[in-house]
Amino acid sequence: MSRQLLRIGRDAGRRSEAAGTRAAALALSAFAVALCLGLVAMVHASYAGKELRRDARTPVGQTEQSPATRATLWLVGSDALKGQRSFSVVYIAPHTPHAPLPPGVDRWPGPGEAVLSPGLLKAGAAEGIADRYGRLSGTVGQEGLDDPGEWLAYVRPAKGMKAEAPIEVVVGFGPKAGMPAEGLQPGTGRDNDKPEWMFQGLVIGLLLVPSLVLLFTALRAGAHGRDRRGALVDALGGLRRDGALIAVGEAMRPVTCGAFASIPFFAVAAFVDVRVPFVGYVMSSADVRQHGWPVLLTPVAVIVTALTLAVISDQLSSRVEGTRPADASRSRRQRYLALLCAPAILLASRGPELAGDSTQYRAWISWIGLALVVLTLPAGVAVVVAKLGGSLERTGRKRGWAGALIAGRRISHYPAATARLVTGVTVALIVFMQALAWQAMFGTYHAEMEEILSAADRNVAEIGPRGTVSAREAAAYLESVPEGNVPVVLAPPRTADAGPITISGGCVALESLRLPCSPTPARVDVALDRRLQQLLHWNTEGGTYLKVVRADHAELAEQTVQSTNTLAVVRADGGVPAVAALKEASYRAYPRGAQVRFPGEEWLADGIPDRDQGRWIQLFGVLGTGILVLAIGLSGKAEFLRQGRALAPLAVLTGGHRVFHSSAAWAIVAPLALAALAGCVVAAWTARPVARPGMAYFVPWGLMATAVTVVLALSVVMGLWAARIAGRQARDWRA
C-alpha cells in the first residue's frame, strides 16, 4: 500500500495543476538550499583550517628553559601594494646551526634572498614584487599560509640580523614547540577577518533565507489542486499517513534531483582550490577535505527537510479542524500572522538596542526579528489587500466593472494566494536593504577617507624608513632614487605653533615645487604648488611661514634620520613618482625597507580590509536577490495558471478578453505595488540595527526608489503575463 501511495503521488506530480512549474521550482529550491548549507559548512571549514595553520606558524619565544641549540632571529614587518591592504614581511636569519624554519619554507634563503607566497607574486607582478626584497629564493607552501591566496613574504637581510630589540629569538613554531608568543605571529588575518559568526550570519541572512523562501514558494505552487486532493483522500477514509505518503511521492523526484545536483560543486571545492568570483578569495580544498565533511550530509538534510515541509504543508492545508470551510481557516491563519507583523518589525528594528554594545547579540536579535518579519509581512500585506478587495468588489458591482468585481472577490477570499505572490517581493527588498546596510557598515570609513583624500595630490611620495637608520644608509637610499625623481625633507617648527617650517632640497626639487633656490635660506609665506600644499597639510602643525633651504644629498641624509622630519620625493616634471622603484630601493638601502605612500594614505589603508570584505556582501546580496526574483516568477506563474483556469469561462459571459487585463491589474499589479511600497519602508526600518553603536545610519533613498521602480515594472510585466495566460486558457476552454 505504501508503495502504491508513493506511486500515486509521483503520478499526481506529473499531471496536477502547475505540475511542471512546481517540479522545476522544487528542484531549483532544493539545489539552492543544498548549496547554501554546503557553503555554511565550507565557511566553518575555512575558518577552522586557517586557525590551525595560524597556530602552527606562530613562533615560540626563547626563554631561560628553552634549549639554545636551535634558534632563529625573527622580526615581523609589513608592506602594501598600491591601493591594497597591508601584508606581513617577516625578516628571518639563523641564530644557531639547524635553526628552525617557519611552516611552508622548506630551506633557508641565502643572505639577500626572499621567499614569497604565490598569491603575492601574482598580485604584485606589475610592481616587480619578485625583486623588491632581494633575489627570489622560492615560494611559501600552502601549509604555511592562511589560505592559498594569502600575501606573505619571508626575507633574509643581506646585512644579517642581531639578537637585540626589536628582533626576537624564537626556538620553534606552533604549540608542539612550546608556548606561542603573542605579537610575533605573521599575517594580518586575525586582525582583519571578521568573526566566523558574522560571516555565517551573512550567508544565512542573504542566501539561505531567500533559498528557503524559494522552497516555501515551490511547495505551495498549485496548492489549490492539492487541497482538493486532500479533501478527497479524507472523504475516502484516508489517514494522515496516506496523505503524507502521497505528498512525499509527489515531491521526492524533483527534490532529490535538485539536492544531489549540488554534489559536483562540492566535489570541485574538495579537490581544487576555488577562487571566488568578484571577491578574489581562494578557498583551500585541503580545508574542505579535512573540516568540511558536513558538506556530504547537506543533500540528505535538504531532502529530509523539503519532504518534511511538503508533508506539513499538505497536512496544514488539507486538515481543518471544526466545521469552517478551508478558505475561512486559511484566512484566519493569515490574520493571526498579520497581527504578529508589527511586533516582529519592532523586534527587528528596536530589539537589538536591548543588547547594548554587544555586537554579536545585536546581530542575533536582529536576525531573529528579520526572520519573523519575513514570515509575517506577506500575511500583513495579504490581509490589507483582502480588506481592500472587499471595497473593490462593491465598487465593481456598483459601477459594472467586471474586472474589478472578479479581482475583488478573489483577493478578498484568497489571502493566502496574495501572500504567496508578494512573499518574494517583500523578502527581496529586505535582503537588498540588509546587503546595502552591511556594505555601508563595512565600507563607511573607507568611503569617507576616499572622499576626504579625493582632493589629495598623489603626485608626491612620502618615504618613512622602518626602524632606526643611519645617515650612511639614508645617503645610499637618496643616491638610488630613480632618475627624474627628486627628494626634499620637510622639518616641523622647533616649538609647536611657533617658528618656520623648513623645507630642504636641491635646486631641481625646489624649483619643481615653485620655491626659490638661493644660497641663503629664503622665506615663503604662501605655498603655490599643490603637492607642497598636501605635504604641509598632512605632516606639519603650526608654523608661521616656510623656510626654504638649499641642501645636497649629504645634508638631506642627515636630516632624514630624524624621526620628526618627513622625506618626500616628487618628479621634476610634475608627474607621478616611481613608487614601485622607490620601494625596491628602500629594501636595498635600509635593513627593514621603508613605507612609500602619498600624503594621508595611511588613514585610507585602515579601511581597506572592510572595503574588501564588503565585496562578499555585494556578491551575496546579488545572489540572494536573484533567488528571490526567481521565486517571484515561479510563484507568479503558478498563480496565473490557477487564475487562468478559473477565469476562462468568463470569455463567454463577457464577450471578450478585456476582463482578463483589468482583473490581472487589480489582482496582480496592485498587490505587488503595495508590497513594494510596504516592503521598502519595512526594509529600511529593519536595517537600522546593522549600524554599529554610535554610528549614524542613512537610508539610500535613491537606491531604494530604484528597487521599488524595478518591482513596479516587474509587477506590470507579470500582470500582462497573467492576462495572456488567462486569454490562452480561455481560448482552449472554448475550443
Describe the protein.
- The protein has 735 residues and is α+β, with helices and mostly antiparallel strands.
- Helices cover 59% and strands 11% of the residues.
- It has 25 helices and 16 strands.
- A hairpin with a 5-residue loop joins β2 and β3 (86-94).
- α5 (196-220) runs parallel beside α22 (608-647).
- It is elongated.
- Mean pLDDT is 79; it is low at 320-326.
Outline the secondary-structure elements.
Blueprint (H helix, E strand, L loop, with lengths): L1 H14 L3 H39 L1 E3 L10 E9 L5 E9 L18 E4 L1 H6 L11 E5 L12 E5 L11 E6 L15 H4 L3 H25 L2 H13 L4 H21 L2 H9 L2 E2 L6 E2 L1 H7 L6 H21 L7 H14 L1 H10 L8 H41 L2 H12 L1 H39 L6 E6 L5 H9 L5 E7 L9 E5 L1 H6 L9 E3 L5 H10 L6 E5 L2 H8 L5 E6 L7 H11 L4 E4 L3 H5 L2 H40 L2 H5 L3 H29 L14 H34 L1
Parallel strand pairs: 3-6, 4-5, 12-14
Antiparallel strand pairs: 1-7, 2-3, 2-7, 4-6, 8-9, 10-15, 10-16, 11-12, 11-15, 13-14
